[in-house]
């Protein structure tokens, strides 16, 4: 799985003018399931994200995790993280998992964060979404379970 994390003070995702998910301080997580990913892959990624020390402590150092700060997560499915831009000018997305598999893993990943005690909301899989965020820092990290 691939994930792009953005530390945020707030974020929301709208579909057809209606907010379907939102968060206050925490993370906006764009996530992409790849062929061969499993529920175990999603569990490992959720555990890693929950423990990443990317939030400021009292001394202003990035020394606290999402779990330690009580922050929340907004998880949005993002198949374009699998883009292949090696040839031509049109990205290819055949490196992403198929829709049924991807949706199941996306939902499992969100549930895994919840199981770790992280308040988690989601976007709407397969919908045309508008994502709004206030990036905090900015702090943006790329995670790939193939290259941890």
Describe the protein:
The chain is α/β, with parallel strands linked by helices and 148 residues long. It has a single domain (2-144), classed as D-tyrosyl-tRNA(Tyr) deacylase (D-tyrosyl-trna(Tyr) Deacylase, Chain: A, 3-Layer(bba) Sandwich). Helix content is 23%, strand content 41%. The chain has 3 helices and 8 strands, in the order βββαββαβαββ. The chain has helices at 39-51, 66-69, 99-115, and strands spanning 2-15, 18-23, 26-32, 53-56, 62-65, 72-77, 120-122, 129-144. Strand 4 (53-56) and strand 5 form a beta hairpin. The mean pLDDT is 95.
As for the number of domains, it is: 1
| Major sheet characteristics | 6 strands, mixed
End-to-end C-alpha gap: 10 Å
CATH top-level class:
Alpha Beta
Secondary structure blueprint with pairings:
Elements: E1 2-15, E2 18-23, E3 26-32, H1 39-51, E4 53-56, E5 62-65, H2 66-69, E6 72-77, H3 99-115, E7 120-122, E8 129-144
Parallel strand pairs: 3-6, 6-7
Antiparallel strand pairs: 1-2, 1-3, 1-8, 4-5
Helix pairs in contact: 1-3
Structure keywords:
148 residues; alpha/beta; D-tyrosyl-trna(Tyr) Deacylase, Chain: A; six-stranded mixed β-sheet; two-stranded antiparallel ribbon; 41% strand; globular
């Amino acid at each position: 799985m691939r994930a792009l994390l953005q530390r945020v003070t707030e974020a929301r995702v709208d579909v057809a003018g209606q907010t379907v998910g939102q968060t206050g301080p925490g993370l906006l997580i764009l996530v992409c399931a790849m062929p061969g990913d499993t529920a175990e892959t999603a569990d490992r990624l959720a555990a890693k994200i929950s423990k990443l020390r990317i939030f400021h402590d009292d001394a202003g150092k990035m020394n606290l995790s999402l779990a330690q700060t009580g922050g929340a997560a907004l998880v949005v499915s993002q198949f374009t993280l699998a883009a292949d831009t090696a040839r031509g000018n049109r990205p290819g997305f055949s490196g992403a998992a198929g829709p049924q598999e991807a949706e199941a893993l996306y939902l499992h990943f969100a549930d895994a964060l919840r199981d770790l005690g992280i308040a988690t909301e989601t976007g709407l899989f397969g919908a045309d979404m508008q994502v709004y965020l206030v990036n905090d820092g900015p702090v943006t990290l790329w995670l790939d379970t193939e290259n941890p």
